[in-house]
Amino acid sequence: MNEILLEVRNIIVRFGGITALNNVYFDVIKGEFLSIIGPNGAGKTTMLRAIIGVVKLLSPSRIFLADRDITDITVHERVRMGLAMTHQIVRPFKSMTVLENVVIAAGHKRTGNPFSAMFSFDRKSEIEKAMNLLDTVGLSDVAEQPVTGQPLGVLKRLEVARTLAVNPGLLLLDEPLAGLNHVEAKKMADTIVKINQNGLTIVMIEHNLAEVLRVSQRLIVLDNGFKIASGNPDAVLCDSKVRAAYMGKEKINAAA
Amino acid sequence: MGIYEISLGTIVCINIIFAMSLNMITGFCGQISLGHAAFYGVGAYCAGMLAKAGFPMYAALFAGMIFAGMTGLVVGLSSLRVREDFLAITTMGVNFLFLGIVRQQDFLGGELGVSSIPSHGMGKIGFLVFVMILACLVIAWSHMIKRSWMGFAFDAVADDEDIAQVLGIDVGRYKLVAFAIGTALAGLAGGLYAYFARFIVPDDFGFITSITVLSMVAVGGIGSIAGVVIGTLLLTLMPEMFRFISDYKLLIYGLLLFGVMRFAPEGLAGLIKSFVGFICKKRAAL
Fold first, then answer.
1. What is the CA radius of gyration of chain A?
2. Domains in chain A, please, with CATH?
3. If you count DSSP H runs as helices and E runs as strands, how many of each does chain A have, helices first?
4. How many domains does chain B fold into?
5. Do B166 and A79 lie within an 8 Å CB cutoff?
6. Nearest CB to A76 within list B149, B152, B168
7. ipTM over 0.85 threshold
């Protein structure tokens, strides 16, 4: 029953002399909601960027998506195979409206080949799909507005809607709640849970531990490029290594 | 219509094709090119040499287009590796490289260029109509691309390459296509110029020509088809109408380019758009 969707093996990433990820490995099971947590600089974002393919991996790193080795495949091809990622710092297409931002992503089939794209004009079904997605994240009111000047809460939601438009099977979310206030964060987390319940596998990085514990089924903890723990959220948080990473060894000792 | 007006009309139409070709790369796909005159030159030399070798005009023009497009494709490969300022410098280098090569080749006439290119045999008015039709076709094609999914994907690439890629757009391929189409059209404009002038020298295709065509695109409004046509008309006709502009042409182009970049990045098209918006708002307020 536990079908493995994504398999990450011995991931090693170095930036100059710094080892950002050191032999990290884990599986993502189809349909699950997995969260990656860890202190700042632990390598969480690098991990997601490695999965989507914008970071160079050193051997013997290997990534498998549905049993297919995707380590040497380009980013846009990975996206077409069902991977998608949202960014912590939102970067909407500034020259477009909110709706157009989603429409261009929804048209990923039409833009696949530049030459056939040149002779394809109809945007009706993509606009319809984009409107539905904007509705899912609660943005249908601002659809026709330009993205410049929209508040962060809107842009964060837009980022999710745009990413969903490429029909992913596995969604990578990089701090979708960062910068949102308490109420917005809860609403956003609920939206993500709903998306997960609709069958989408989710891997999320998030610092908001309260929401992480509320929504995730499984946790992975990274620290200094190492995976230090994984498993059921409650058990992971009791792990002494995790506590040490988060609070510093001295404090643990002081408390003891 | 006198001979002067006919040749002025012809050169305006050739410049429109040339400016539209740069607009495809810089305006639509967001890739800066400071060496566009090189492709104009490749087209001109190719068509000119073939014409002298006795090939019919259509074949010579077509060959110039293909050859320029192929050169453009190779240069486009560099756009996959370098971006923005570095791409600007790389393309600028291509322009100087082109001049350097052409100047040294005896079979291309060296510094003296290619002269006595055979006539197109259409008569001056016939050629004007021919060039005009081509300019209209290029404008129509640009318009079609802008409206298509290809144009939409170009928008995304121009706006943010990294994000476009994460949304499944093959950024590299789109850039290459933009370079290929844009440089091929520049080659076509060059071929037409060769038939029009019937005498070409390397300096016709120097860095100054690249900056001139960039001024036309930027002053009109980068990416706007109507804007580029108006910008080309203005910048081609102004030096002809006012003698003093002709004397200080480069200075004025430089100032215009600077002024547009600093005060109206969207060029005339942007100014008109915000002006119309302003009027509409006033009307609504009344």
1. 19
2. 1-81+201-256 (3.40.50.300), 83-167 (3.40.50.300)
3. 11, 10
4. 1
5. yes
6. B168
7. no
